[in-house]
Amino acid sequence: MSRDLIKIIPPVALFIVAAIFVLFSEPPPSPEPEPAGGPSDLNVILLTVDSIRPDHLGCYGYDKPTSPNIDAMAEGGWLFENAFSQSAWTIPGIMSILTSTQPPVHGVEMRGDVLDPAMPTIFDSFREAGYATPNINFLLTIPEFAGLRVGPAEEKYYSEADDDELLRWIDDNHESKFFAWFHHRGVHLPYKAGDEAMSTFASELPPEERRSSGIKAVLSSAAVVPVGTAEFEEGDRAILEGLYDAEVKDLDAFVGRLRAKLSEHGLLKKTLIVFTADHGEELLDHGFVGHASTMKAATLYDEVIRIPLIFSLPGRLPEGLDVDEQVQQIDVMPTILDIAGIPLPPGLQGRRLVPEPSDEGANICRPGLGGHEGLGRREDERHVRLYTLCRDRLDGL
Ligand SMILES: [Zn+2]
Question: pTM higher than 0.85, yes or no?
Answer without folding.
Answer: no
